[in-house]
User: Which sequence fits this backbone?
C-alpha cells in the first residue's frame, strides 16, 4: 500500500518523550513491536484533589501493531498520584494504572480531531493526548489516605485516626469542656448566655 498521504514536514518533535517513531514497524498488517519506556509526566494531569506531579516517572508499556488503516497503539501506563485525602486532608500517595488503545490512521483526515480519531504524522505518533485523557479519567475524584479513613471530628477538627476511637465531646456534662469550647469559638457570636463555670475552671478569658 502506498503511503502517498504522508506529510513531508512532521509537526511532531521526534525527541518528544511521548512521541513514538513507527519506522521500525513493518507496514504489514499483523506486524507488531513492543517497547517499554519511562518518561517524565507532562504538566496539568490533575483533577480537584489529586494529580500526577509534572516530571514524575510515567512508566509505559507500548505495543504498536500494523493494521490495514494504520498503527494500533496499546499502552499500559503507570504513574504516581499525589493529593489530599477527601476526608481528613492528609497527604495521599498512590499509583494509578491505565490501559488504553488507540488507532493512528495513515490517512490525515480533513480534521484530525474529527470523531476523536488520531492520525500518524509522517512516521510519528503522539501518545500524549491519548494518555492525558486516560490518566485524568483514572484519577480518584475523592482520594482517601486509607479506605476506612474516619476523617475529622466535626466538633473540633481533630484527626480522628490519630485521636482514637474514644474521641468525642460530651455536651454540657463536663464544665471543663464547655469552657474550652467557649475559648475556641471566641470571636463568633454566642447565642446562649455564657455560663459562669468558665471562671471556676480557670480556662476562661484571661
Ligand atoms: Zn484520610
Ligand atoms: Zn473533637
Assistant:
Amino acid at each position: 500500500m502506498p503511503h502517498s498521504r504522508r506529510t513531508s514536514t512532521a509537526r511532531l518533535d521526534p525527541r518528544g518523550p511521548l512521541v513514538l517513531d513507527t519506522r521500525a514497524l513493518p507496514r504489514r498488517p499483523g506486524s507488531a513491536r513492543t517497547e517499554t519506556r519511562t518518561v517524565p509526566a507532562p504538566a496539568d494531569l490533575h483533577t480537584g484533589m489529586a494529580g500526577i506531579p509534572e516530571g514524575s516517572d510515567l512508566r509505559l508499556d507500548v505495543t504498536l501493531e500494523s493494521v490495514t488503516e494504520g498503527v494500533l497503539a496499546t499502552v499500559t501506563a503507570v504513574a504516581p498520584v499525589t493529593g489530599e485525602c477527601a476526608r481528613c486532608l492528609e497527604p495521599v500517595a498512590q499509583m494509578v494504572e491505565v490501559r488504553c488503545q488507540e488507532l493512528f490512521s495513515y490517512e490525515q483526515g480533513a480534521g484530525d480531531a474529527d470523531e476523536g480519531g488520531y492520525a500518524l504524522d509522517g512516521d510519528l505518533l503522539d501518545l500524549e493526548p491519548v494518555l492525558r485523557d486516560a490518566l485524568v479519567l483514572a484519577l480518584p475524584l475523592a482520594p482517601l489516605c486509607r479506605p476506612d479513613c474516619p476523617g475529622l471530628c466535626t466538633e473540633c477538627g481533630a484527626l480522628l485516626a490519630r485521636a482514637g476511637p474514644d474521641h468525642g465531646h460530651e455536651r454540657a456534662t463536663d464544665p471543663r469542656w464547655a469552657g474550652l469550647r467557649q475559648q475556641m469559638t471566641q470571636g463568633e457570636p454566642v447565642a446562649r448566655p455564657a455560663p459562669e463555670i468558665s471562671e471556676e475552671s480557670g480556662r476562661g478569658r484571661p
Summary: The first strand starts at residue 19 and ends at 21. The mean pLDDT is 83.
